[in-house]
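Bit of a strange request maybe. I'm writing a small parser for structure token strings and I need a real example to test against, not something I typed by hand. Could someone generate the tokens for this chain?
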Amino acid sequence: MKNPVDLIQLDTPVQTLRFHRKQALYHNGDPAQSIFRVRNGLIRITRMTPEGRILTVRHVMPGDFFGEEAFMSGKREEVAEALTSAQIEAIDPQLINYGDLMTITQSLSQQMQRLMDYEYHLQTGDLRQRVARYLLKLAATPLTSFDEHNRPMVSATHELIAEGTASTRESVSKIITDLRNEKLIDSGYRSIVLLDQEELESIAEGF
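Reply from user aminoacidic:
Good idea to test on real output. This should exercise your parser:
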């Protein structure tokens, strides 16, 4: 797992919470009472499609804020899940001062740009391109460590990749098998090693 980022110190009091991998922070319909910030680890925000499939909406990285529904005194519209062990700061929105509010707003604006990039990822190219893009995206998150040859080793299941590419597990498994046969990746139990990032980037761009 990558090292934690240096966080801007907030004046607002925070409560530090710890979550295990695959543990849900909140579910759809839960009361939205706190804003959160990731101290370390990786959080995934998901929604359920009308067909009953889970779709990854965005990834929340160390330093990012999320849970912005609390500003509207509403309910959670999505599910937040820890993809790794994680430390999370919980913040009472009623105690946030102007300076911290600006910090949170800037974080959410940056995430909005990433979200637009992610929507582009989902809506362009075939599944092979989307899988390559998603693997490269995950390689830049705390889901990734490095093997003895300094190659990115992404801790991800075929199901997780399917949920991140708006596809099915069966279709993703076929793409993963093809990429492994082409020696672009190596895969094992919940682990994918990126052997040739340059070629994966070419696939992601449609070349």
